[in-house]
Amino acid sequence: MREEEEPSWFARWEEQLPPPEELTPLSQSLITPDLALAFDIPAVPNPNPTPGSNPSPGSLHTHLTPSSGPHFDPSDPSAGASSGPHGGCPDEPARTLKRPRLVWTPQLHKRFVDAVAHLGIKNAVPKTIMQLMSVDGLTRENVASHLQKYRLYLKRMQGISNGGGSSPSGNGSGPLSASDADTERLFASAPVPHHFLTGRSPGPTAAPDPYMPFVPAVPTMSTLQHHHQQMGLNHHQFYNQQRSNALGQFNGFDHHGFLTRSMPAQPPQAISMHHHHRMVGPAGIGIMPSGNGYMDELDMGARGAGGARRELTLFPTGDH
DNA sequence: GTTTCAATAT
DNA sequence: AATATTGAAA
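YS: structure for the whole thing
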């Protein structure tokens, strides 16, 4: 890809090759974890970082998916760093990397619900929701998938409130238990705007909902979707985006250096806020005595007192 | 061509 | 069960 090659480059082609250790992590991504296991490749042996000290399950981030995707070999510090001084391979080999599956933490879900609430159910489509949430690393399909499930949940809720006395789990025949699902807990962790259930949208004439979360002026479709390719972002969002770039490009880990070098053990998956709060729970598993079982420390955290919204990211951060 | 949505796959 | 991926329809 560079045109300034010497005539005899072929004599020294080896020099261009990256050191072996830079190649290793790639192999991990090229084969599925299953295959790796099947062939006894020690690629992904131990996702378990710190067994000793509980990373506090009550903690806000660090929801490690038990069997999440690519793991970055902790023993390979220089992994993924790539593109040395030569700049041989400038960027994102990561685009093709399979990203770990998203875990919808209550915080994430909260943003989701807020976004949906402000768009109105009619305008709430994956792309728009995603934009409003402005969580970097979050993809449209992530949202689409969640939205699908959320709609089912809402439908169930409607069904209950109208007709029957069945539990939200939709199991008509079942007793009205609180459901066996985590889903219930997750969805219960965020208030469901009433108009969601009535199926109408909070038009301009609608009664003032208690929802006026972020973005002072509710961005309309028109507001959102112009600007060039990079997508319509309102000023707030644009601000947020630009410092972490990505969104469009992301797909892999640009932040590799950090990921692989600094905190190999950090689940690349969890969601983190850019602040240093710590729900230091008692040694016991973090069970918050709140009604719904979730602390919503971030409910306030999401919005700075000054109105500035903190960035939410799926990437590991220095958050310690 | 892009995005949504429901179905289906992991 | 939770999320991802797919494919038809908008």
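YS: worth flagging: The two ends of chain A are 40 Å apart (CA to CA).
IM: good catch. Also The longest helix of chain A spans residues 140-162.
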